[in-house]
Queue: 2 jobs
Job 1
Amino acid sequence: MMIWKTKISQMMGTKYPIIMGAFAVIGKAEFAAPFSEAGGLGIITALNYKNNDEFREELRKMKKLTDKPFGVNFSIMPPYFIEQRGRGRDENFYLEFTDTAIEEGVKVCTTSAYQAPKIGKKLHDAGCYWFHKCTTMKHAISAENAGADAITIVGLEGTGFKNPNQNTTLINMTMAKKMLKTPLIAAGGIGDARGFLAALAMGADAVCFGSAIMATTESLAPRAWKKKCIEQDIFDERFYKKIYHLTLKDSAIHSMAVGHCDEIVSIKEFIEDKVNGAIKILNSWGFEGTEFNTLEK
Ligand SMILES: Cc1cc2nc3c(=O)[nH]c(=O)nc-3n(C[C@H](O)[C@H](O)[C@H](O)COP(=O)(O)O)c2cc1C
């Protein structure tokens, strides 16, 4: 039994320093609730709800499924993206959703992709935490200057919103730890216990799992997609190019993290495997404590 104490697990109020990724289409209560139940912070992705009423209904559903803490993600499209497509959600679209999340008792909201200072202010005025997710150091510095309480930097190994100037998770975390004061969340390519522990060693105060939980029992991804994640040869040249040469563009496809996925397991099994595996590694190195505490670091 290990107690995990980091600045971010304390803000999230979770047993473990683990946060769920945002997921277009499938980031809904049935997927997020078991993640919260298993000791991480489950995330409802607001993009999946047509309007504020539907969103509020989903938050209420989530509260029926779990009494553990959970968060919300607002994925904000950059202006050029909205212009290109002729539609999309900017920060203003989510201001009413933010009020709803606050009213429904959500304590942590994550914003991603584009800057979100108005949402951040609303959250802070209500005593809530604002986590921002980005892909480059430049945007992480902006998020720190805007007052985000935690910053996720998604590494090149990862998926979701990609950037041509993206660095690897290793460079992101080790450099951001030196350059920023804000607590960090590692994301991108993490899928096993060693990666989880390594991210914490690199300076992260929490770890975000995205692709690696696609093939869990409770994931709302279609069966065929789960099978694809499990069978994916991440060393296949075409896949490699999709991820690292950015031919992936902005499409939501699983990342390098699925290299660690070889069977469908429950979210509880997935999380326990990472946490217990990390404890095993720590023990093998001679660490015999019962508290993993990075609060002073
Ligand atoms: C199917 C899928 C959909 C995603 N949709 C979103 C999204 O709507 N908004 C967002 O900020 N990130 C989205 N992401 C990115 C994840 O939240 C997370 O940042 C990323 O998966 C981390 O990298 P990893 O997949 O290597 O763990 C998505 C990822 C996947 C696999």
Job 2
Amino acid sequence: MTQETFDVTIIGAGAVGTALARELTRYQLDVLVLEASDDVAAGATRANSGIVHGGYAAKAGTRKAEFCRPGNRMFPRLAAELDFPYRATGSVVLCFSEGDEAALERLYANGVSNGVDDLELCSRDETLRRIPRLNPAEVHGGLFCAGAGIVSPYEYAIAMMENAIVNGARLRLESPVTALSHIGERIALEAGGREYSTRILVNAAGVGAEGVAALAGSPPFRMKPRKGQYILLRRGTAEGLDTVVFQPPNENGKGILVTPTTWGNLMLGPDAQEIQDQSDTGTDPESLARIIRTARRSVKDFDVKQAIRVFSGTRPAADRGDFIIEWSETIPGMLHMAGIESPGLTASPALALEAVRLLGEAGLSLRKRPDFQPLRRAPTRPAPLGPPAQAAKRAQLPEGDPERIVCRCEQVSEATVRDALERGIPLRSTDGVKRRTRAGMGACQGAFCGPRVRKLVADFGGIDADNVLGPSRNRDRIKADLDATRCLLDGGNTHDS
Ligand SMILES: Cc1cc2nc3c(=O)[nH]c(=O)nc-3n(C[C@H](O)[C@H](O)[C@H](O)COP(=O)(O)OP(=O)(O)OC[C@H]3O[C@@H](n4cnc5c(N)ncnc54)[C@H](O)[C@@H]3O)c2cc1C
């Protein structure tokens, strides 16, 4: 088998791996990203809160604190260059009683130690004045952070990878790394039936990082994955709430939040459950009902009947409780970037800079490429939602007409889907198209558009429609969980505004 040779190989195309790939393409290096799944952003980067954290929460002196604020500061420019959905909304941590005030003051002081200079402690009246949708019966005060924001996390990683590819990086999907060894000055790898040789190897495999480390001997850390469940309400439900709303932190982390998404949905969650099975992406009605009840303490006037999806994400937490950025002791040239739990999405662009610094320090030649292209070609996005009748009419247009509506709920045209297919990352699933175009994100969750998208993916890739992967979560299962959750809540009377 011929061996392909690279300067740097990154295992894992999540927020960390894709941000690093893009950063490395600024230099004259051959860069490869190996991803186990059929798409980028397949792990924690796919299912999280999408908050660009302000930087006050991570304990001063930790690596999380070191990289959160600098990462946060990079987002406006990155969003401008790479055209992914991001908005500087600010955030608030609420307190519900006098007893909580001390917790907010501690957060404030921690934030100041972390160099966060846009924090403000506000009274009950001021907090309610700023965010009228908050629950007046519960809110006692708030800690505002002006620099926090929201991002579409998978669109961020997709944008990073697309731009890295334009700048010369290679991406191999469906390529789980299964073996690695050290040979002289280089590392040999096996992934997806191919062999590779690389000078530097970066382990950015999320919850899989321990498994990758174990390929090189006894792993220096253990993963302790924690699942978090979410409820997503339909588009438009975030109207009047343009701030991320946290509750006072507890032993499980930042607590349940209520947040707008970049697309105008309201999102509730996450809880925190330690799990043994890393592939457990399930949800359960009891947890979902608990999340909804808890979220109502912050924002009372949401209608659970507007919920369209439930899902969970798994935090790639490690046993050290902090980001692990260190060289392997068993394989020279292998850098672990592991335990990247929250605020890892926020920190990821700053972590990429740190990794480049470490690689340079280790002797990797960092000569700038004069032709680095920082701008990503803007993706074709669905137009703002118009009258449903018009969309239904356009849905009747023949296949091949760019104006044909493929997804009625989100009014996604065929031109938008075709553009997603042509952007450099090979797509083999309807979910891949969904994450890039929103086809399948609406109320019917792909019941209408699924077959249309499947056909377009198959035709574009020259593959059989049966080989196009379907939704990662079963629609009936989501509906059953939602129905059972509604039943658990107030005997089905879920709208108590
Ligand atoms: C519930 C929840 C809420 C969160 N909220 C926030 C938030 O609001 N803000 C924030 O900043 N952070 C948040 N985070 C944290 C953030 O999502 C993570 O820090 C970040 O996504 C980690 O990125 P990563 O690239 O390290 O890992 P991942 O995104 O998990 O990527 C790792 C990739 O490696 C691949 N892989 C695994 N094993 C192999 C192998 N052997 N070979 C090849 N590929 C492999 C996986 O398929 C995966 O695609 C949250 C996380 C969760 C779960």
